[in-house]
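Model: You mentioned two targets. I'll fold them one after the other.
Researcher: Yes, keep them separate.
Model: Target one:
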Amino acid sequence: MPVDKAKQVRATLASLEKMSTKRDRANLAKFGINATKAFGVSMANLQVLAKRLGPSHELAAGLWDTGWYEARMLASLIDEADRVTSAQMDRWCRDFDNWGICDTVCFKLFDRAPHAWAKVPPWCKKPQEFTRRAGFALLASLAGHDKSAPDAKFLDGLRLVERHAADDRNFVKKGVSWALRRIGTRNVALHRESVALARRLAASTDASERWIGKDALRDLTRPLVTRRLVIS
């Protein structure tokens, strides 16, 4: 890493430390985020710092390598999506160790990267908890943000949902439910397919499948959702 970039990484870590509070550190545990290296900085303050720093692929890489939770969160906010490589996505994904960093990276950065769709199936099939979570978090993020993707991609996503809905690990099943719910809000056709899948899962004898199905149905059948789909 160039000297000036290393200096910027150190300065950014110092800024994060100054922003840290006991309350924000306590909130990590409160929300089930297990981060071994954490300052305790709110997302609001991370966004302020990200705006001040501006986009930088190189700085993002340096911050990620520090291993600090907030530095990695910040990296996802300042990295340049069009410069994110396939190898980087796999490398960062292997580092995911809690739902906070997994979901933020997928929602704020990876779903705009050139290789986003190519990562969904293989990550969903991996046995590691947060790699599989990342596959479904990325699918959910694409369902919300990729306005040009054809329905066929999301129908493939529903097949992944059905295949892995029996995974009873907490962070996986919540990711699977998130993907199912987000796909079901894209349009009327995908809503119909998602509700049908949710009903099948809700009627399952498997506890995880049943939980996912009922969780998704509660959301997908809300009047607010159905009215918006009809209007659009």
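Model: Target two:
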Amino acid sequence: MSNKEKNNPFPDFDPNGIGISGKLFGLPFETVNSEVVILPVPWEVTVSYHSGTAQGPEAILAASQQVDLFQEDIKDAWKLGVCLLPIDENLQSDNNKYRLLAGNYIQWLGEGALEIHGERFAAVPDIINRACEEMNDWVYQQARNYLKEGKVFGLLGGDHSTPLGAIRAMADHHSTFGILQIDAHADLRSAYEGFDYSHASIAHNFLKIPQVDRLVQVGIRDYCEEEWTVIHSDERIRLFSDSQLKAQLFEGRTWISICQEMVANLPEKVYLTIDIDGLNPALCPHTGTPVPGGLDFQQLDYLLKTLVKSGRQVIGFDLVEVAPGPEKSDWDANVGARVLYRMVNLAAVSQGKLNWL
């Protein structure tokens, strides 16, 4: 075997050329030869504003074909081996069915007509909660199986309710870890709109897992008074709100010092959850609940690099709430695909599967 073949597991694949159609980032990998496995979860049953995030995995897959594979700071990033699992058709079908039911219920709540159709809608929360619990259990089993195989596990939503099962699986493998949450919303509401597994309740549900000993929230700029009280009463939570971050930058503090402070609040092992609406909505205009403000792409990237360079290990990750726009506009998916590629590669560096240049 030539030296070229030894250094390139796929000598016929040109990382500078056209990628393979239908493959994540156009890469030539299957599950068996991938270090990183990503589970698509096209689920948005409890979204309370705009829908569309269930189309996120498919849109990101298509947009990923346009992502250049070279990374200026990571050696041979494309050789890592990463694949996106097939979309589960049964899950997709259940999403469509239960999304319609939940949507009608949410509309009814918004109309405030409690005396009208009350009996008709009384059973809806229990039905939706059972469906979401089944989704969570399915995600848990998928994540658990791949973690047992030694894979780095990532999840691609769907709305922000989708990674709970993955974090439960992480808890089977790690006695203690922290969560770094990039988000516009605190997501600390208890059973928002009557749904135990609402996208607005995901951080509340994270904190029910005993192994989660720290939650660092970055970019938050929309929360209710109840959430504000929780943030300041639970010693496990450290908030870096968007207004706080911007004020410090306006007053002359450097981004590197802010990132170092955020990372210092995290333990050795970290699960990374990124809601795309944590970014400036110019980068994700069609996400379900956009909010003015947020991080730019380079700020996010620098924070993640600071996390990994600190020696902390990214044990798993998810990217959620990416939604294609009207006529399947691909801007949101283009941004999402690039965020995902960096998450994959930086997680791999943190686990010693890739090296810095």
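Researcher: Noted. Anything on target two?
Model: The CA atoms of residues 37 and 153 lie 5 Å apart.
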